[in-house]
Amino acid sequence: MPLNEDRLNQFMGKVVGELGAAMNAALVLIGEQLGLYKAMASAGPVTPAQLATATRTDERYVREWLYAQAAGGFVDYDPDARTFNLPDEQAFALAQEDSPAYIPGAFQIISAVMKDTPKILEAFRTGEGVGWDEHDSALFEGTERFFRPNYAAHLVTEWLPTLEGVVMKLEAGARVADVGCGRGASTILMAQAFPRSSFIGFDYHGPSIGWARRKAARAGVSNASFAVASAKDFHGEPYDLVTFFDCFHDMGDPVGAARHVHDMIKSDGTWMLVEPFAHDQPEKNMNPVGRVYYCASTMICTPASRAQEVGACMGTQAGEAATRRVLAEGGFSRSRRAAETPFNIVYEIRP
Asked: What pTM was estimated for this model as a whole?
C-alpha cells in the first residue's frame, strides 16, 4: 500500500528531535562535570571565550557545546552580541544542586543504560534477568542524584505529615527501617529531620551501603546506620515505620517483601510505600512522564525483578490496583493513597 507521505514526514521530524535529545544527554553531563552550567548561572551573557576562561576549558569545544545547547533551548543565544545566557529557570534545573528540579542525575542514568544495552539485549533473547548490581556504576550514583532532590523537596515537609501520627512518633523517638535505601539519601534526610529517632537503611547492594555509611559520617548523622539485607530478610526489633522509596516494583517477590514487612512492623506501625505515579490503564500512562518510566522499566526495573526469585516484574507503571493486590496478598488489609506528585504516589499502609 502507498505510504502516507505526511505521516512519514511527521514521524521523521519526531525522529530528528529524538536524535538531538539523545545526543544532548552526553552534553548535559559534560556541562555539569566541567562546571559550565554553574559558571553561566552567575555570569549573565557570556562569549565562548569567557566561559572557557572561567572553567579552564578549550574555547573551540565550549563554542560548539554552546551552539548545541542553544539549538536545544537549554541556553539563550543573542546573534547580534554573539553571547549565550543561561536563564534562571534552566539554571534552577541544571546548576543548583539543592534545587528540587536538579536533573543531571537523570542523564547519568541514561549514560549507564546505554553502556548496559548489550546485557539487556541478551536478556530479551533469553528471558533471564539483569540484576541491579550488574549495571554500570553510573546507574547507582545517577539514581541517588536524580531522586534525592525530589525527596528533599517532599519527604519531610509533605509526605511524612500525611501519615497518621507518624511525625509525632518520629519527633518523640521511633525505630525506622528504610528498605532499598541505595546510597542512603532518603535515610539521611529523615535522620537529619528527626534526631530522636533511629534509622536503619537496608539494601542488598553492598557497594551502595558502603557509600551510604561514608555519606552519613561526612554529614555528621549519628542516628542512621546501614546494613546489607534484602527486602525479605531485613532484620531488627519491630519497627514503628518502614519505608520503601521507588524500589517495590523492582523486587522479584514483592508479595514476599510485603509479608516480611508485616512481620517486622509493630501492630500500630506504618509502612510508607513510595512508588512511581501510574494509572491502572496503560493508555493513560502514554504521556511524557509515563514514557520515561516505561523506558526505565524496560532497561532497569523489569530486568532487576527477573534476576531475583519469583521474578514478578511489576514494572514502574503497575498502577494502584495492581499494587493494592500485592499488598493484600502480603497480608495488609488497610492502605490508602496519602499523597502524590506528578512523579510519585505515596501509600500509607497499616497491618
From this structure: 0.93
